[in-house]
Each structure stands twice: as C-alpha cells, then as structure tokens.
C-alpha cells in the first residue's frame, strides 16, 4: 500500500499493516502482546477502505477467520473494532507510521547533532581519558536511597560516562547490597550473587588473589556479559605477617574512547577487532566450565548494526579480505559496523585462538595496537577506592583493573544485568526525563509524593 506521510511516500505491505493493528482485540492493551493470529492473515489481504484522518490512517480490513481456535483472532463476542459488515477497523497513528516506515525508512536512525566524540557510541555519551580524575561523576548515597529521581540521576551519569561513584555509603555489605538493589535485582553467577571477597582464591579466578589485573571487562565468557558491576572497598589492612597494606589501586579505562582512538588511528585494526570472533572461558572452579553459546566466540568490539551506517560506510580492503572468511561464519557485515555497544575484552580469559591462518597476524597486530591504547597514560584513570565510596561501572563499556597489593583487602559488590539496567533507566527517563513538574505527566519525584509508572501506549517506540 502506498501511503503519503507528509511529503514522503511509504510503501508498506498490507500484511505488515494488518499484522500491526493494535486495537484491543488484536493487541493486549496491558501486556502489549499480540493477540491477533498473524498466520490467519491472508498474504494477499487488501483493505476494504482507507481514509486519512487527523489521528492517523484509518483502514477497514476484511475479517480473516482464525484457523487456530486456540488463539482466536477475536473473542467470540464481536470486538469493538469489527463493523457490522464483517470487517475490522484499524487506526495507525501518523507518528507511528513515520517512525516505522521501511519502504523507504523515513525515521532518522541518528540525529545529525551527534558530536564527533559521540558518534562511536551514539548520543548522550561523554568519552573520557585520565583527565576525568579532575571531576569524576558521582552522586550521594542519600540522594539515591531517597527516591527514584535520585536513582534516575545516578543511572543517567552511568549512561553518560560509563561509571559513577556513590559517596557517603555506610561501609557495610548490607548497605552496599541495598544500594545495588535500588537499580534492580542482583545478577547471580558462579561467583554467587552479592560478593564479599578477599584474596583467598575462594573462587578459581585471579580476582581472588593479590595479583595485578590489567584493564579488562568481566564475564566475557558469558553469552551476555554482566552489565553493571559495583565495587565497595570495605577494608585494606596489614597482612597476617604484619606487612603494611599497600597497592590495590583501581583502574578504569573508557573502552569507547579507546575504540574511537583505534578507529581513528588504525582503522584496519578496528575492523579486525570488530569482526574477528574470539572465545574465552572461566574454568578455575572445578564445578564450572563457562564458555559462550557461540563456540567461535564474539568480537572484542561488538556493534549494533545500523542500516544508515551500513549505507554510508565504504568497503575497506580488509573487509574485502575478510569477506572470504566471513562468508562462512556469522561475523558482522564486513562493510559496516554500526554503533559500538559492547567492549568484550579480557586477554587473560581468552581461549585458544582458532582463526584462519590469514587472520592470525592481523589479529595480533590489532590486539597490540588496542593494548597500547588501553595502557596509555592518557587513557588510564587510576584511583584508590576507600570505604564509604562505591564505584559502579558499565561492564559493556568501561574496562577495570587493579594494581598488585599487599595486605588483607576486602571488597564487596555485585553485578546487574545489562537488560535490567537499561530497563530501569528507560522507565525512569520516561518518568523524569522532562523538567521538574513539566506537566508532561512526569512525577516531581519529591519525597512522599506518590511515584508511579507513566501509562505506556501500545504505540510507544520499541514495542
Ligand atoms: C565476582 N568478582 C567480581 C569478585 C570476581 C569476578 C572475576 C571475573 C573474571 N576475572 C572475569 O574477568 O570475568
Ligand atoms: O580487586 C579489584 O579491585 C578488582 C577485581 C577485578 O578486577 C574483578 O573482580 O574483575
């Protein structure tokens, strides 16, 4: 069907339009799940009538009778959308049609106003180097515990910078766990849920030693690496033989900035780390052997494929070379990467490198360039954690590490899944994203004021 949306035309398939009717009998108004039996729609369905109204495109469809009684297209009583003439009325808001048009796409996948620095990870990201030490993002414990507006402000900082400190946290595991749960439930792993650990090798991982750990992201061996990670240093005291406590400084590196530098300075290395898949494992506990679902693993730099970027990006000669390799495996499309959404890097946990001969040297060359950037003084942000100051970071963006240490050092914290973090941020952004009392249904978030979720429309973006 050819639809004129403002000055542009969109050619949508009738079956696609019918399948996306969101009247209460086709789409559950509360659960936002499809009730319509997609498979009862005739591939040749055509509208009975089409009308452009102020609200949107009004279409009268012929009533298709469900062939699947267990999933009726309509309840036995006639639905509000059926007309007396055995047809089905559907209304498609203009904004929704424009946002979801595909022939051609009419919705900008990214705004032109993205700054040069933001382009690699999308708008709203502030990339940083060692200079962040002058004014690192932080929030107050009381603010986060008081109400959801405080949690929103905290998550906005994590979203923008990839990390945030929380100051004045009672130096106890209980208060720390309660703080994490202000975001979402804790993600359980083979390390447990909420961890309270020292260098006692209670788990088969070098984190449970006093060794130095280079910049890395955690759980690269999970199909879905942990999203947020929070640390709270509870104590660092003399060792049992009396040696004074020393070392144990914490390192942060903005993986998105490092990726930007690699892309700018060594684009061929960026292509390699964005397409060559490597596998990692966690095999230090005899009761676990964790490796990702895709046996070939994942690239160190993982992207969200962006059609607009694909259309704009030239095919590099390495891509052409990779094309042969990628033809038989599910690499990212060789000619484009899209938006960087995850840095998945822990060189210590990397399993045997299983690559075609032609990729071994390019991989090690790219890996060394990546390592040089990660370990540059301009990129490393070192600081000493102290009791009362929690550090939380996006494990999909920010790499962390620590210097070797002497003494009894006790750290507690936990993981939150990336999906649960983004869900919490999305809901709070919708609730508080406007100005205070903006009248757009946003709740002021003042203490004592009832804070409830805003109504979600069946036409909301992303559904
Ligand atoms: C659970 N706790 C954070 C204490 C230790 C996690 C160890 C993670 C491992 N080194 C990795 O890079 O995946
Ligand atoms: O001990 C620390 O400061 C950090 C340990 C670490 O890097 C980890 O648990 O992944």
UniProtKB/TrEMBL annotation:
Residue ranges of domain TauD/TfdA-like in the record: 135-415
Record's keyword terms, sorted: Carnitine biosynthesis, Dioxygenase, Iron, Metal-binding, Oxidoreductase
Pathway the protein acts in: Amine and polyamine biosynthesis; carnitine biosynthesis
Top-level lineage group: Eukaryota
Biological processes annotated in GO: carnitine biosynthetic process
The protein's Enzyme Commission number: 1.14.11.8
Cofactor: Fe(2+); L-ascorbate
Gene Ontology MF terms in the entry: metal ion binding; trimethyllysine dioxygenase activity
Pfam families (UniProt xref): GBBH-like_N, TauD
Stretches with biased composition (Basic and acidic residues): 65-74
Record's catalysed reaction(s): N(6),N(6),N(6)-trimethyl-L-lysine + 2-oxoglutarate + O2 = (3S)-3-hydroxy-N(6),N(6),N(6)-trimethyl-L-lysine + succinate + CO2
Ranges for domain Gamma-butyrobetaine hydroxylase-like N-terminal: 13-67
Annotated spans, Disordered: 63-84, 434-463
Cytoplasm recorded as keyword: no
GO cellular component terms attached to this protein's record: mitochondrion
Class of enzymatic activity (EC top level): oxidoreductase
Family: Belongs to the gamma-BBH/TMLD family.
Its job: Converts trimethyllysine (TML) into hydroxytrimethyllysine (HTML).
Name under which the protein is recorded: trimethyllysine dioxygenase
């Amino acid at each position: 069907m050819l639809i004129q949306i403002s000055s542009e035309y969109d050619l949508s398939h009738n079956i696609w339009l019918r399948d996306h009717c969101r009247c209460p009998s086709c789409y559950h108004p509360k659960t936002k799940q499809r009730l319509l039996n997609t498979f009862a729609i005739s591939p040749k369905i055509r509208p009975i009538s089409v009308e452009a109204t102020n609200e949107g495109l009004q279409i009268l469809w012929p009533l298709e009778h469900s062939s699947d009684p267990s999933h009726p297209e309509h309840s036995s009583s006639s639905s509000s959308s059926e007309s007396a003439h055995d047809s089905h009325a559907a209304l498609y808001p203009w904004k929704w049609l424009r946002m979801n048009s595909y022939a051609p796409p009419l919705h900008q996948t990214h705004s032109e106003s993205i700054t040069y620095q933001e382009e690699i990870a999308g708008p709203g990201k502030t990339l940083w180097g060692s200079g962040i030490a002058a004014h690192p993002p932080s929030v107050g414990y009381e603010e986060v515990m008081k109400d959801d507006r405080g949690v929103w402000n905290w998550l906005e900082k994590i979203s923008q910078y990839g990390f945030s400190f929380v100051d004045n946290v009672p130096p106890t595991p209980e208060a720390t766990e309660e703080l994490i749960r202000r975001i979402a439930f804790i993600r359980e792993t083979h390390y447990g849920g909420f961890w309270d650990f020292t260098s006692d090798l209670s788990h088969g991982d070098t984190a449970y030693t006093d060794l130095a750990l280079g910049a890395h992201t955690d759980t690269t061996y999970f199909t879905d690496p942990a999203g947020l990670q929070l640390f709270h240093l509870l104590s660092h005291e003399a060792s049992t033989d009396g040696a004074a406590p020393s070392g144990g400084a914490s390192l942060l590196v903005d993986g998105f900035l490092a990726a930007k530098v690699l892309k700018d300075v060594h684009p061929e290395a960026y292509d390699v780390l964005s397409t060559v898949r490597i596998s990692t494992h966690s095999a230090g506990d005899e009761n676990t052997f964790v490796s990702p679902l895709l046996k070939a693993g994942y690239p160190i730099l993982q992207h969200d494929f962006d059609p607009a970027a694909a259309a704009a990006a030239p095919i590099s000669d390495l891509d052409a070379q990779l094309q042969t390799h990628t033809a038989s495996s599910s690499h990212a499309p060789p000619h484009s990467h899209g938006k960087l959404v995850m840095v998945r890097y822990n060189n210590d946990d990397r399993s045997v490198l299983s690559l075609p001969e032609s990729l071994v040297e390019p991989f090690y060359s790219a890996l060394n360039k990546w390592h040089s950037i990660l370990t540059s003084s301009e990129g490393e942000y070192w600081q000493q954690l102290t009791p009362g100051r929690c550090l939380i970071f996006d494990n999909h963006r920010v790499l962390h590490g620590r210097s070797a240490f002497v003494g009894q050092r006790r750290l507690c914290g936990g993981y939150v899944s990336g999906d649960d973090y983004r869900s919490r941020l999305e809901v709070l952004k919708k609730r508080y994203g406007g100005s205070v009392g903006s009248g757009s249904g946003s709740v002021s978030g003042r203490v004592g004021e009832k804070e409830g979720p805003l109504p979600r429309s069946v036409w909301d973006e992303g559904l």
